[in-house]
Write a structure and sequence with these properties.
about 150 residues, Ribose 5-phosphate Isomerase B, Chain: A, 6 helices, binds D-ribose
């Protein structure tokens, strides 16, 4: 799977850790930065990752900031993105099964590396269940389309 990954300074360490996990799992990883501990603005990285996932340039996206809140708001502003901010594996898996989430968001200041690893792995493995959930996503997409200018 091709995975676009990005963070701000507060998510850098966890981003680097997740990159290693993804590489070990034979995923193709595109790193959108940031790549230094210098303070940056999470929207600059979140919009790039979410934009490329929405454009089909990556299969999935993973975003990390301090709490995950900022990146989650940013990613969900992008049409076609269904981003899941997950602090536990159950939520992460449900976000795939019911929402077909295409971006996973983590908070480095909240979630430790061991749990983050389990969240990432379970999120990547879980499959969308379709059925009644497809109709709900269709309603989200119809709303997005209605806001086109
Ligand atoms: C950066 O200090 C912090 O505000 C950011 O990483 C994130 O937690 C925002 O939601």
């Amino acid at each position: 799977m091709k995975i676009a990954i990005g963070s701000d300074h507060a998510g850098l360490e966890l981003k680097e850790y997740i990159k290693r996990i993804l590489a070990e799992g034979n995923h193709e990883v595109a790193d959108y930065g940031t790549n230094s501990p210098q303070s940056v603005d999470y929207p600059d990285y979140g919009f790039k990752v979410a934009g490329d996932v929405a454009a089909g340039k990556a299969d999935r996206g993973i975003l990390v900031c301090g709490t995950g809140m900022g990146m989650n708001v940013v990613a969900n502003k992008v049409k076609g993105i269904r981003a899941a901010l997950a602090f536990d594996t159950y939520t992460a898996v449900q976000s795939r099964k019911h929402l077909d989430a295409n971006v996973l968001v983590l908070g480095e200041r909240v979630t430790g590396k061991g749990l983050a690893e389990e969240i990432v792995k379970s999120w990547l493995e879980a499959k969308f269940e379709g059925g009644r959930h497809s109709g709900r996503i269709a309603k989200i997409e119809a709303f997005e389309k209605s806001t086109d200018r």
